[in-house]
């Protein structure tokens, strides 16, 4: 605990940076989305290159899969840089279909659990809300992209506030002998 108390200021800085990022994401959602797509592109490109190198150096049967995975990563990175709009739209569709499929599975699970637990309706309502969210993303993808960035911004602000509060609590920890 003593070591944690000594670095309380690092937690504080982490929280402040998260708050600033969150505010900037809310103020400039289009720029934030572009930056997220560029970061994804850079990650995919670098990860792809490392996978290709690992595949070339690796002599076993998984060599081909590493190389294929690497090539796909490099291609995904290039697509993100060349067509950032398509990349952000693809990300939106992944989130939308995930929300729909997970919502349907929650509805089914809630119906099946009716005999086992009480208040299964909460799981069913959660599933219905998830399906509605996914469908709305598909109907209005432009608004959905902005909404996703806003959610990231709001999350960053809330997370940052919790880190700031935590930093001051950690600062007050008693030193151990």
Write up this protein.
With 177 residues, this protein is mainly α. It has one domain. The chain has helices at 2-6, 8-27, 29-57, 63-82, 84-112, 121-139, 141-171. It starts with a helix and ends in a 6-residue tail after the last helix. The model has no long low-confidence stretch (mean pLDDT 86). The chain crosses the membrane at residues 7-27, 33-53, 65-83, 89-109, 121-142, 148-168.
Features:
mainly alpha, 7 helices, 177 residues, extended
**Overall pLDDT, averaged?**
86
Number of domains: 1
In one word, what is the shape? Answer: extended
Unreliable runs: none
- What percent of the residues sit in helical stretches (DSSP H or I)? over 70%
What does the radius of gyration come to? 22 Å
Number of strands: 0
Compute the number of helices: 7
Keywords: Membrane, Transmembrane, Transmembrane helix
Organism: Nonomuraea montanisoli
Transmembrane segments: 7-27, 33-53, 65-83, 89-109, 121-142, 148-168
Protein name: HdeD family acid-resistance protein
Task: Describe the structure concisely for a colleague.
The chain has 177 residues and is an all-alpha fold.
Protein topology:
Layout: H1 2-6, H2 8-27, H3 29-57, H4 63-82, H5 84-112, H6 121-139, H7 141-171
Helix pairs in contact: 2-3, 2-7, 3-4, 3-5, 3-7, 4-5, 5-6, 5-7, 6-7
InterPro entries: Acid_resist_chaperone_HdeD (IPR052712), DUF308_memb (IPR005325)
Organism: Nonomuraea montanisoli
Keywords: Membrane, Transmembrane, Transmembrane helix
